[in-house]
Amino acid sequence: MKAMQGLAAFVDNTVELLAMKLDKFAETPDKVLDLGDWLHYFAFDVLGEVGFSKKFGFLEAGHDIEGAIRTIDNSQWYNGIVGQVPFLDKLLRRNPLWQWFPFLATKNALITRIAKAEIENRKTMGDKEIDRKDLLSQLMKGHDAAPDKFGEGDVFAVAHGAIFAGSDSTASTMQSFFYHVLNDEGVYAKINQEIEEATKAGKLPQIISFEDAQQLPYFQAALKEAMRVRPAVGLNIGRLAPPGGANLDGHKFPEGTRLAVNGWVLHRDRGIFGQDADIYRPERWLDSDEKSIKLMDRHMFQVCRFLCH
Questions:
Q1: Which of 24, 75, 115, 284 is the most exposed place for a label (fewest CB within 10 A)?
Q2: What burial class does residue 52 get, using C-beta atoms within 10 Å of its C-beta: 0-12 exposed, 13-18 middle, 19+ buried?
């Protein structure tokens, strides 16, 4: 979080660019836009700033450059299905025959090319420091400190994965938030009122920082509720039962058993989130007693100990 806050000024530039683009649409009432698409463009450009100190250019272009977003969407279908039967991956995507079909090879994807090119660029810089500490610079430092433990392939894997997974999950969360807020007049009115009152009190600048946003309790509840009803990760990400096995909810699982909890199922557990767990209601995070809120927080898939949004 501290590293992200250090990059806040560069992310703010991307926020301003998105606002400018949306303002242009607002100036033409009969013009229709897909807000979900533009949030995806925004997420990509933010991750570009955070990861490589450069936007990918989606907001400026106003479209899916080289089908990069479509590529990620398609890969998610593949990962979701084949990820449950991983041996099939050796017959499919990791099959050496794929190299004869360039349009199928993920190495030719836009983000993959940018990541590889930027890593090569940083290598040529040697000891020269870049003007800010982005994700790649931190990974390169880790590699330089212990190249035998954290190889160049690891640098690429983490940087590339952060862009691929981060852009998709960030966009998904924003899409969920706007969808639910714009479809509920009551929630929309309460968020507007909270922001207007904070602005009049001089608590909010034009570009709101992370710290500023923490002073908006209803907004925070609406955002958390959006992550609850539509968690960005819908896959079962397994963990192995430790030596000696594990006891979960009265069931004994032998050592080495692969276990997983699906966030979409967990977040609708009525014993945790209430009898109305299937509906979007931000008030549950404000009106419940302290014990219930802590219980709900513990079972939020995005902020658990091993998997984060």
A1: 24
A2: buried
194, 216 in Cβ contact below 8 A?
yes
For the segment 85-107, the average pLDDT, to the nearest whole number, is 74
Other CB atoms closer than 10 Å to residue 284's CB: what's the count? 20
Contact 172, 232 (CB under 8 A): yes
Is the dihedral angle over the CA atoms 127, 54, 19, 279 positive or is it negative?
Answer: negative
CB burial string 172-191: b at 16+ within 10 A, e below? bbbbbbebbbeebeebeebb
Burial class (CB in 10 A: 0-12, 13-18, 19+), 270: exposed
Please tell me the distance from the alpha carbon of residue 288 to that of residue 279, in angstroms, as a whole number: 16
Question: For the purposes of burial, counting CB atoms within 10 Å of the CB of 94, is it exposed (0-12), middle (13-18) or buried (19 or more)?
Answer: exposed
- Is the pLDDT assigned to residue 276 strictly greater than 90? yes
Phi, psi of 234 (to 5 degrees): -105, 5
Cα–Cα distances in angstroms (integers) from residue 49 to residues 45, 56, 71, 161, in the given order: 6, 8, 21, 15
- The pLDDT mean for the chain works out to 87
Residue found by looking up tokens 């009106």 in the block: 287
CA-nearest of 294, 212, 306, 226 to 259 is: 306
Which pLDDT score, from 0 to 100, does residue 124 have?
79
pLDDT by residue (tens digit) across 200-242?
999 999 888 888 999 999 999 999 999 999 998 888 878 899 9
To 5 degrees, how large is the angle CA 39–CA 43–CA 49?
A: 145
Report d(CA 179, CA 234) in Å as an integer: 18
Place of tokens 């991750």: 47
